[in-house]
Design brief:
The chain is mainly alpha-helical and 481 residues long. The strands form two sheets. It has a two-stranded antiparallel sheet. The chain has a two-stranded antiparallel ribbon with strand order 3-4. The relative contact order is 0.08. It contains 18 helices and four strands. Strand 1 and strand 2 form a beta hairpin.
Length: 481
């Protein structure tokens, strides 16, 4: 009997405890794991701080787990007199205690690492003794400010530069190549990554440049991109009927969009007789579409500018933009173009608007790099549009310069830094020329001979102008002494 009891004591708690441990570890790993990239474009109108939520979920899970379990006794020792039931209970309580401790350690470790990134300063590390509580609070507050700023940088980057990033983890760790040329940016994946990191550095303020490779910066930047992509997609799908002059029912379901708009977003028969989505023979990209790609009309469909305006200035701008009227937003609202300091149209803006316009009308329910329903590789299409615009600008192609001048004329009419060059205001220039011609033809009058002049010909004093208290004979007049 004693031998059987020992066998039970060895067998019962081990199997059950191990299963419970594995289940718990798998569950907590789900809480702490990074969100898969393919889920970033989900149709969700609520901006979310994904990583912040993950941390909160972990803390909430630990608190619920602790509340739902019986109070753990301080003495978890075992002895030979314990029954199998009691041994199992002790083993279970011990495993729960270990899991809760592991959960708490993970949370504290992550918080410690964030603070450590901020305090790795020679002056701070040379000080003796632990930092004061107030100093830690100040460091935490400063870190939160930088995280918020970095998320905003990610949001702006998505609209002005790139909808998606190739190899996002390694991009932020990549060393910039001094030999990199923008004209070779799209030759291979290595050059694409160089183009990405160059733009990230160019759009990051000096105080954050040294932190680009740190984990918290990467997480915050990518979270900002994800939030902006999700919010922009949801907003445009909700406002699509106003932008594209259709009914809400036409955009409501994937099947409805497939039946209504397939041809508008490039569904064509290719040279081999197979139907597929064309990259360039797309109606929604062209002004006055003639059924084929036109270098002088592509990216000039006025609705593309309305799409971008809806993203950076809100749905309230749609009607005004379609009527050709300026829109500055509500007085109580600071629109994104103001918050981000946008001054002119960028290649990323045009490419972004082109992809979003096509996606809104597509069968795809969620904006991902590759459409689940359409099969369109949206990321690759974006790269192709961006390459076309970047190369055209670099080589000063007239059709591409016209694109940027036209977009700036509508979206940023007062820009002085447009990539297509200064905007032409023919009426103003003509009126100014007429006024200056008239001024040049006007008769010049010589000054009277009794005026005194300075070296530049300016009048110092008229001959009969007297100073205060002076008379013609240079003496003070009566009553004014």
């Amino acid at each position: 009997m004693e031998k059987n009891r020992k066998r039970e004591r060895r067998r019962v708690p081990t199997n059950r405890g191990s299963d419970q441990s594995r289940d718990h570890v798998q569950e907590t790993d789900l809480h702490h794991g990074a969100q898969p990239m393919q889920d970033w474009g989900r149709d969700d109108s609520t901006l979310s701080d994904t990583r912040g939520q993950n941390a909160q979920v972990s803390e909430d899970h630990a608190m619920r787990h602790e509340a739902d379990t019986p109070e753990l006794h301080g003495d978890l020792s075992v002895n030979q007199t314990m029954s199998p039931r009691m041994l199992y209970k002790v083993a279970r309580e011990a495993q729960i205690a270990v899991n809760l401790a592991r959960e708490e350690t993970r949370i504290l470790r992550r918080k410690y690492d964030d603070l450590l990134n901020e305090t790795e300063d020679p002056e701070i590390s040379s000080q003796q003794g632990p930092p004061k509580k107030q100093e830690l609070m100040d460091v935490g507050s400063e870190l939160q400010r930088k995280i918020k700023h970095t998320k905003q940088l990610g949001q702006k980057f998505l609209v002005t530069s790139m909808l998606w990033i190739h190899d996002p983890v390694n991009t932020f760790k990549t060393t910039r190549d001094d030999q990199y040329s923008p004209l070779g940016r799209f030759e291979n994946i290595e050059q694409k990554i160089q183009g990405q990191i160059s733009e990230i550095y160019a759009n990051t303020p000096r105080e954050l440049v040294g932190m680009i490779g740190q984990d918290w910066f990467v997480s915050a930047f990518r979270d900002g991109m994800q939030a902006q992509r999700s919010n922009g997609a949801s907003r445009l799908r909700a406002c699509g009927n106003t932008i594209f002059d259709c009914s809400a029912a036409d955009l409501k379901t994937s099947e409805a969009r497939r039946n209504k708009f397939l041809n508008k977003i490039g569904w064509r028969m290719n040279s081999k007789g197979h139907s597929a989505f064309s990259l360039w023979n797309v109606e929604v990209l062209h002004a006055d579409y003639s059924g084929k790609f036109d270098v002088n009309k592509v990216f000039l469909n006025p609705l593309l500018k309305v799409v971008l305006s809806c993203v950076i200035r809100g749905p309230g701008s749609i009607v005004a933009m379609k009527k050709g009227m300026p829109y500055e937003g509500a007085r109580s609202t600071e629109t994104l173009d103001v918050k981000w300091g946008l001054q002119h149209t960028t290649p990323g803006m045009v490419a972004c608007a082109a992809i979003l316009a096509r996606w809104v009308l597509s069968p795809d329910s969620i904006l991902k790099e590759r459409g689940a329903q359409s099969g369109i590789n949206w990321h690759e299409d974006f790269d192709n549009y961006l390459e076309y615009l970047e190369i055209g600008l670099g080589k000063r192609k007239g059709s591409v310069l016209t694109i940027f001048r036209e977009w700036d004329r509508i979206l940023f009419p007062h820009t002085t830094s447009g990539l297509g060059g200064p905007l032409n205001d023919e009426d103003r220039e003509e009126a100014m020329k007429e006024a200056m011609d008239a001024l040049n033809q006007d008769v010049e009058e010589l000054p009277p001979s009794d005026q005194e002049h300075d070296d530049d010909g300016g009048v110092i004093r008229e001959g009969n102008d007297l100073g205060p208290g002076e008379s013609d004979n240079g003496l003070e007049s009566e009553g004014e002494a």
